[in-house]
């Protein structure tokens, strides 16, 4: 699959040009695996994730989940099958949470929107406890929580409907180091207990190393390297991957 966008015209007489956000790319995500996608800003990571989730449609190629084609042009209701199988955690928890809704309403929203059967209010309480929040959190609003707590709410919303695939688009980058470690530990635990397939976009190579089995390295819309996390990070073959790893800050020893 690939994705092109119209480039902005510099003059009124200039012919319409296209800009490639994602070059022709093949990506297979095996059920139960954890895939990390790394690369600098503008490398095509978020475009790839939007295509995988059916939030955008490819210029060429197709996206399939369990052999079923994802049609981003279809109605929202006809994509419920995909939404039931996927959950998404965004980068900024404050921007992704509706300030007019309580935590309970936010977490429960996909249960009602996707018509998930069962006791939905009980599921909201259950999943809030699963991410480490107290029962009284259901009646509080986003501004009443810390940044780490808001990201826990966003994570609870993403897993409330028991998806098979969890996608994180830089979900830890807006958090401080201590909170980041707590959320990372929570993701590891959720993956172990819920048998989630994880697709994780991050600038933080250390996070990817801790969380992901395989890694995909992107540059200018191209996949330049892929393989097991251990092999790629310890023995990179591409100059770009080597440059990314060399840019990681290191505290020199005595």
What is the straight-line distance between the termini? 49 Å
Q: Rounded to an integer, what's the Rg over CA atoms?
A: 19 Å
Structural class, judged by helices and strands? alpha/beta
Measured as a percent range, the helix fraction is 25-40%
- What's the architecture in CATH terms? 3-Layer(aba) Sandwich
The backbone outline, from C-alpha atoms, is globular
Mean pLDDT: 89
Strand content: 15-25%
**Which spans have pLDDT < 50 for at least 5 consecutive residues?**
none
Strand order of the largest sheet: 6-7-8-3-9-10
Instruction: Report the count of strand segments.
Output: 10
The helix/strand order is EEEHEEHEHHHHEHEHEEHH
Largest sheet: 6 strands, mixed
Q: What would the CATH topology be?
A: Rossmann fold
Q: What is the number of independent domains?
A: 1
Helices, by number, come to: 10
From the structure above, extract its key features.
ATP-binding, 254 residues, ATP binding, alpha/beta, globular, 10 helices, Rossmann fold, ABC_transporter-like_CS, two-stranded antiparallel sheet, AAA+_ATPase
Give an account of the 3D structure.
With 254 residues, the chain is of the alpha/beta class. It has a single domain, classed as Rossmann fold (3-Layer(aba) Sandwich). The chain is built from 10 helices and 10 strands. It has helices spanning 45-52, 80-85, 93-96, 103-113, 120-130, 147-159, 177-194, 205-211, 229-234, 239-246; strands at 3-6, 18-22, 34-38, 64-65, 68-69, 86-89, 165-169, 197-201, 214-219, 222-228. Strands 6-7-8-3-9-10 form a 6-stranded mixed beta sheet, with helices on both faces. A two-stranded antiparallel ribbon has the order 1-2. A hairpin with a 2-residue loop joins β4 and β5 (68-69). The longest helix is centred in the last third of the chain and has 18 residues, at 177-194. The N and C termini lie far apart (49 Å). 35% of the residues are buried. The mean pLDDT is 89. Keywords: ATP-binding, Nucleotide-binding, Transport. GO terms for molecular function: ATP binding. Residues 7-245 form the ABC transporter domain. This is ABC transporter ATP-binding protein. Pfam families: ABC_tran.
